Amino acid sequence: MPTFTRRTLLLAGVAGVTAFSVAASARPADPFTLGVASGDPTPDGVVLWTRLAREPLADDGLGGMSARPTEVLWQVAHDDRFARIVQQGSATARPEQGHSVHVELAGLEPGREYFYRFSALGYLSRTGRTRTAPAPGALQVPLTMAFASCAQFEHGYFTAYRRMAEDQPDLVLHLGDYTYEYEAGIHKSPSGIARHVEGPTTVTLAGYRRRQAQYKADPDLQEAHAAAPWAVVWDDHDIANNWAGLQPDTPQANFAKRRAAAFQAYYENMPIRRSPRLYRRIRWGSLATFHMLDTRQYRTDQACGDGLQLCPERLAPDRTMLGDEQEAWLFDGFRGSQARWDVLGQQVFFSQYDYIPGHVDKFLLDAWDGYVADRDRVVARFADVRNPVVLTGDVHAAWGAEVKQRWDDPSSKTLATELVTTSISAGGDGSEEYEDTGAWLRENPHVKYFNNRRGYTLTRFTPGELRSDFRGLDYVTRPGSPIHTKASFAVEDRVPGLHRL
Question: Whole-model pTM?
């Protein structure tokens, strides 16, 4: 690995800036327009990410970069001034990988903060903050974790990401719909269109790369990525609305090719390890294990369509959300878990939810209500772990629910807790509640909380308690909204269920 000093890097950056200024070109020269990120921490390492793009919105999806590979230098230090460098090296940004870089670090100390940066083509990237997971067996170190989903660029500004960074979490989970696939102007929120995406609906590799680049160039999103390591999983809009396995929501030619292009662009733009599968575990000592699930790629196609339906087919025992291999992997993880808290990081509403008050039952078939047998199998295995918790995105509102042994009996045993984060921006400004919220909650007494503002959920794990703060913005259709804690709940060790604080 080459060696270089902070002075060398800084001089290279100054030289690059000077050259750009002298040239007075309209084309940006800085290749670090998409920021930096880290993810998937382990006790001795983390993934460092960047992607070079001089022109993030270039039509070919390659960010205005040349067809040649580019050497990228990286550094990791104990301090943000890089006076105490602990590792450094180089990686190659290749055009066939969208000029992205994934550095899978090892050999770091467990449970501590690090800072990192990149250098290429005479420029120095911004500095990112990351952290390794605690050592195996470590229990007493608390964990502050934020989780989020559903960032629709046109529906609003990404202020929630900036507020999340200001909360200084140790870890961020993103549970899907990091990007949306629609062309400009066709997917409107009740608040209208706040800003426009570039390009047509994403169906090609170039299109997905370009859409990812427009999102990654957002300064609020860059703040959140630079603040902490992330663990990410996709949902439908990262590829196409309500896809299931190789089945798109609406018939289309070559969906397998489109899905493969989206998968590649997702890897290129996320701080994740090279792996044949997305589902994986993030272990935080003995305090928490995060089982990050893929509820799209292996599921059976939705029954009776994917909307609100009366549908006996949803009860069929062979319907699966996870697929056989992922389900076996999850249950093996439950059986071998030594964690105080076992957490499912997954995409769609887990608890039963009847959307029609009264004697007629209608369920959302794209969610776990369309895969009842698989949900029953997962709920039965919650008995194998000490404190099961389900984290959810997708539905563009904040919810808190108790997972019941029998959904239609409010007095039945509570087996787990579900926390549903609202969207970053999808749905527009939102409101505190819907007009018929009270009727919905009476129809579903295991649901204890609902709020329709945009934002994220901030959690704090300790050995004795999980605290959850539902954080909401006043507006997203213009930038700069303050953030408020709309409600706080606690889950006590060995006492599943929500207690409002």
Answer: 0.94
